[in-house]
């Protein structure tokens, strides 16, 4: 069964000879940055090797959440939520954004104590959240057949529709004259006098003074060809959607076994909240030292295995030139098979737990690759200050499963960097050179969500 089909977006008729900025990647980080830059009067060419939102930007859970985030992301997420709320009016299209609230169900007192800590972390940022007793959970979810002791309820959490949101933004860009170039991989970045001067794509050359790499799981490979080290790995998530379910909950529900949210079509997106099986790749070995703190913190939540991904990694070229076919032209859209057993188990728990889902039918299943960094916090940064860095070259990647909700704010912050404007939030947590300047790298905990 193929992955989700995002709404299609038209292509610009010709590749421009010049643009102020070339954005590499047609996911939410790239599209939101292009939107910000265009509104600031810059000419932008957005190049995507496949099609808009073809990979994780259409395959994620669709949550736009403030809760269960690393505190380093919270200021940017607060800005992202504000931007999501105004996005439909801004682009004249539909993203499906709704502030629906989320309920994080707790099976143990220890889990409930962690939610108390989450509330304490949210408080300085003005984010409301409350603990619910078991009786309050049952009043909110009549008929719920789960052994819970309480829950955290977060009224500011929301959702949007991954298959429609980014394409709607991209269509708005097209209408404003921004170049959208799909099936157009960027091969290399060119420099002149020590700074960015252009890019070479599979269709030709574009002169520019700035480039943003927003390539998701492909970013490490692209930057590595330029001699820039990005300690990024990928992990697979599996998701299913149901046919419409009458009388299901309006807000998100998350439990130790599952996570689910209502869709605009009346169905539900359901995923497992249990540890996923991580397939080792050659990069897993190369980056073992960089990810050691994450492995120590998360070893209970990681199951390692060796499969086709290892051989695929060995076969993938790590160096190529402007006249050579790049790896991005050989794999336009990554569409991994879902872990059927894992998501089937999650749906079975949902069916038993909530009366509305007793006869819920699966409409589709899919897998997707998530780009992960050692501290589970993205890079939104220039490349100056790292070995091989180039003035005018910027990066927005490594969102570690948080990127869909964070994408609008990430676009604003990346545009601030590119234009030299005052950054909307402190740049320190997101700088690329934190991995090479002696900064202690540590993950907060299990915050990966899709």
TrEMBL record:
Q: Which residues form the FAD dependent oxidoreductase domain?
A: 20-417
Supply the alphabetized keyword list.
Oxidoreductase
Lineage of the species this protein comes from: Bacteria, Pseudomonadati, Pseudomonadota, Alphaproteobacteria, Rhodobacterales
Q: Which domain of life is it from?
A: Bacteria
GO cellular component labels: cytoplasm; plasma membrane
Recorded hits in PANTHER family, A to Z, give: D-AMINO ACID DEHYDROGENASE, SARCOSINE DEHYDROGENASE-RELATED
Checking InterPro entries in the record gives: FAD-dep_OxRdtase (IPR006076), FAD/NAD-bd_sf (IPR036188)
Gene Ontology BP terms = D-alanine catabolic process
Family membership: Belongs to the DadA oxidoreductase family.
| Protein name in UniProt | FAD-dependent oxidoreductase
Q: Which GO terms describe its molecular function?
A: D-amino-acid dehydrogenase activity
- Asked whether the UniProt record includes Oxidoreductase among its keywords, one would answer yes
């Amino acid at each position: 069964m193929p992955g989700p089909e995002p709404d299609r977006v038209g292509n610009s008729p010709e590749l421009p000879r010049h643009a102020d900025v070339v954005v590499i990647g047609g996911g939410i980080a790239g599209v939101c940055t292009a939107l910000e830059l265009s509104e600031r009067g810059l000419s932008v060419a957005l190049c995507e090797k496949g099609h808009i939102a073809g990979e994780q930007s259409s395959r994620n859970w669709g949550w736009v959440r403030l809760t269960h985030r690393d505190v380093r992301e919270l200021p940017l997420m607060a800005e992202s939520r504000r931007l999501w709320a105004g996005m439909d009016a801004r682009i004249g299209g539909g993203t499906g954004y709704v502030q629906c609230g989320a309920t994080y169900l707790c099976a143990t007192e220890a889990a409930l104590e962690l939610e108390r800590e989450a509330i304490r972390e949210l408080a300085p940022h003005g984010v409301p959240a409350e603990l619910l007793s078991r009786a309050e959970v049952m009043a909110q979810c009549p008929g719920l057949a789960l052994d819970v002791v309480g829950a955290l309820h977060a009224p500011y959490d929301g959702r949007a529709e991954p298959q429609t949101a980014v394409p709607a933004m991209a269509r708005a860009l097209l209408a404003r004259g921004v170049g959208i170039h799909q099936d157009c991989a960027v091969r290399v970045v060119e420099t002149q006098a020590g700074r960015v001067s252009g890019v070479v794509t599979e269709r030709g050359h574009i002169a520019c003074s700035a480039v943003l790499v927003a390539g998701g799981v492909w970013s490490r490979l692209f930057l590595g060809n330029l001699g820039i080290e990005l300690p990024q790995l990928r992990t697979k998530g599996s998701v299913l959607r149901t046919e419409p379910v009458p009388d299901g909950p309006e807000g998100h529900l998350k439990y130790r076994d599952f996570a689910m949210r209502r869709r605009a079509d009346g169905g539900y997106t359901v995923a497992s909240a249990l540890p996923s099986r991580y397939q080792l790749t050659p990069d897993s070995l190369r980056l073992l030292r960089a990810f050691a703190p994450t492995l120590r913190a998360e070893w209970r939540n990681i199951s390692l295995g060796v499969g086709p991904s290892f051989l695929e990694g060995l076969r993938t070229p790590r160096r190529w030139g402007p006249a050579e076919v790049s790896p991005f032209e050989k794999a336009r859209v990554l569409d991994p098979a879902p872990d059927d057993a894992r998501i089937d188990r999650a749906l079975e728990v949902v069916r038993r737990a909530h009366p509305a889902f007793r006869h819920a039918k699966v409409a589709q299943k899919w897998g997707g690759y998530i780009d992960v960094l050692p501290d589970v916090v993205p890079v939104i940064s220039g490349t100056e200050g790292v070995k091989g860095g180039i003035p005018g070259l910027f990066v927005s990647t490594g969102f570690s499963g948080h990127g869909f909700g964070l994408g609008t704010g990430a676009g604003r912050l990346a545009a601030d960097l590119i234009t030299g404007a005052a950054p909307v939030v402190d740049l320190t947590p997101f700088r690329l050179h934190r991995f090479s300047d002696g900064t202690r790298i540590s993950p907060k905990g299990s915050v990966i969500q899709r």
